[in-house]
Amino acid sequence: MKKNNQKTKSWPIIFKVAFFLAFRQVKRSSIWTNVLIIFIMTLTFLNLVIVSGILVGLIEGAVTAVKNHYIGDVFISNLKQKSFIEKSQDLIKVAENLPGVEALTYRYIESGTIESEYKQGKERPTDRDESVGTSIAGINPEIEDRVSGLASLVVEGEYLDEDDYDQVLVGAMLLKKYLDFESPNFPTLANVEIGSRVRITVNGNTREVTVKGITKSKVDEIDRRVFFVDKQLKGLIGRDDYNVDEIVLRISPKTNPIAIKSALIANGFDKYARIQTQEEAEPKFIKDMKKTFALLGNIISSIGLAVAAITIFIVIFINAITRRKFIGILKGIGIEPRAIEIAYILQSLFYAFIGSTLGTFLVFAVLKPYFLAHPINFPFSDGILVATVDGTIIRIAVLAIATLIAGYIPARIVVKQNTLDAILGR
Amino acid sequence: MTMIIEAKKLVKKFKSGADELTVLKGLDLSVKQGEFLSITGRSGSGKSTLLYQLGLLDRPNTGEININGIDVSSLSDNERTLFHLNELGYIFQDYALVPELTAIENVLIPLLMQGLSNQNAEKIAKDAMAKVGLSDKLKNLPSQLSGGEQQRISIARAISHNPKILFADEPTANLDSETADVVLKTFLALNKEGQTIVMVTHEPEYAALTDRVLTLQDGIIAREEINLKK
Hints:
The complex is a heterodimer. By secondary structure, chain A is of the alpha+beta class. Helices cover 52% and strands 19% of the residues of chain A. The longest helix of chain A is centred in the N-terminal third of the chain and has 41 residues, at 31-71. In chain B, helix 3 (103-113) runs parallel beside helix 5 (147-159), helix 4 crosses helix 5 (147-159) and helix 5 (147-159) runs parallel beside helix 6. In chain B, the strands form two sheets. In chain B, strands 6-7-8-3-9-10 form a six-stranded mixed β-sheet, with helices on both faces. Chain B has a four-stranded antiparallel β-sheet with strand order 2-1-4-5, with helices on one face. Chain B starts with a strand and ends with a strand. Chain B has helices at residues 47-54, 77-87, 103-113, 118-131, 147-159, 177-192, 204-207, and strands spanning 3-16, 19-32, 36-41, 62-67, 70-71, 88-91, 165-169, 196-200, 212-217, 220-226. Chains A and B meet through helix 1, helix 10 and helix 13 of A and strand 5, helix 2 and helix 3 of B.
C-alpha cells in the first residue's frame, strides 16, 4: 500500500488563492450589496468614534471654556492662609518676562453682595432684600480681555472701559432671567437690566453702581462674578498695595506650562502664591467628570464595538450561508478550507477598511469642523467632537481585529460543514 | 492492467428520523487505469451515492477504498481536499461553477491552489478550455453561458490539472441531446488519451459508449456489461 504524500499548501499559496477569491467576490457581487455593507461599516465606525468623541468633547468644551475664560495656561492665586498674593508686582514682572509667556492679566477678588430694588419699600417687614452674595472682581478691562476674552462674553450691554466710573458687568448666573431654575444654592436677582442701579457691598463699604453689561459663559466662576474696573474696586476695598488675588498667564502653544511654573517656583514665588498649571487648577467637578465620561465613553465604545462585531458577523454569516453550495464546490475541487476562510476574512477587512476610511474622512473633514463651528450647546460647555489621530488609529485597529474575528467565525462555521451536504444543500 | 480504484464491502447508510436506510449494501468494485466506466440504475439505486464515496465527497459507514494504491478511507478532511486537488477531477450534474468567477478563472483556481504561477496556470487553463472547444468564452461569467457551455467549462476545470480519475455525476442530465452528444464526445476523446473516467448516467445510449456498464439495484451491482465493441 502506497502512502498518501499530499502536503498542505504553504501560506503564500493559501493567501494568493484567498485574495483571488475575495477580490472577485467583492468585485462581482452586487454594487448595492457592497454599498450597503460599506454604509453599515461606516456607521459602525462613526458610532465608535462619535459617541465617545462627543462625550469627551463635552468635557473638553468645559475644560477649554475654563482655560480660555478663567484660569489660562498658568493660574496663580493667593495661598489659603493669605487674603491676597504678596509681592504680586514682583511676580507679575518676572512672569511677564519669562520666555513663552504671551499675555498676563491680574484680578482683585473680594467677597461681597449685590442688591437690586433696594429703593422699593418692602410689603411686609419680614420680606427679604433682593440681595445675592457674590465675588467681586477688579480687572484691567483691556488686558483682561486680551487674556480671557471677557468682552466676547458680554451678551447684553457693553464691556467695561478703563475710565468707567461706578459701572459693572454682572454675571448671568446672578440674574433670574438667565437662570431658569430656582434653588436656594443659586439665589438670583430679578428685574436687573442694562442701566439698572444695583448696590455693591464689600468689606462693609457700599456703593451704588450701574449695570453696564451682562456676561454669560459656560464657566460658573465667571457667571457668578461682578466685574469692576480695578481702580474702582481698589478704592472701594481700600487696597493701595497693588497686591492682587489672581494672576493668569497665557503662554505660547510650544511652551510647557510646567516649565513656567517651575521658573516661578525657582524665583521663590511659591512662598507667596499658589502656582498651578491649567490642568492642576481645573475645578474638581471637571476632573471628576473627565474620569466619569472617559469611563462612560469606554463603556459605550465597547458596546459599539460589540454591535460592530455582531453586525459584521451577521453580514459575513449571511454571505457565507447563501454561498454554502459554492463553498462546498470549492472544497470539492480541492481548494483548502484555510484559503476559503481567509477569503472571507479579507472581504470583511476590505469592508471594514473602506468603512473606516470613509468614516475617518467624515469625522475629520466634515463632522469635526462642523462641531467646531457649531458646538452643541450644553449648560456647562460648548460640546465639540474630540477625535484625535491616535485615538482614531486605535479605533481602526480595534475595529479591524473585531472584523477579523467576526469574519472568521461564520466562515469557519460554514467551511467546516460536510462538503457533500454543502454542495447538495442538505 | 493496473487497478486504479478498488472498493471493498462499501456500506452507506442514511438516517431519516428513527429509520435507517442502507443505500450501499457491501458493494465491491474495481476500475482499471484508463477505463471508461459507467454506472447506471434507477433513481434511488445508489449510483450517485457510490460516486460520492469513490470521489471522496462522502465517507462510507464501512468498507475500504483504495485509489491508485492509497487507502483513502482513512484520510482526514484536509487530506481529502488535497487528494481532490492533485489526483481527482469531479464533474457535477449542475455544473457547479463559482458564479463570481469567469470561465477561465473557474478553471485556473485549482491550478493556483496547486502552487502554479499565474502565467502557467493561465496557460494550462487556456489549453483545457481549448480542449473543450471554448477558447472564445474565457472572460464570460457562468451566467452568460448556456448549460452545455457551462458543463464543458466544468469538464475543463476537472481535467486541467491532469487528474488520475475523472468522476462525472450525470453530466448530460440537464442538457439537450445535441449538447449532451458534444459532452460525451469530449469524454470519449479524453478517454482515448488515457483518462480514467467513472460516469453515472441515466441514459443507456451514453452508457453503451463506455468500456463497462455497471447497473446498480438496491445498493448492489445487479449487472455488469463489458463493451466488446470498443
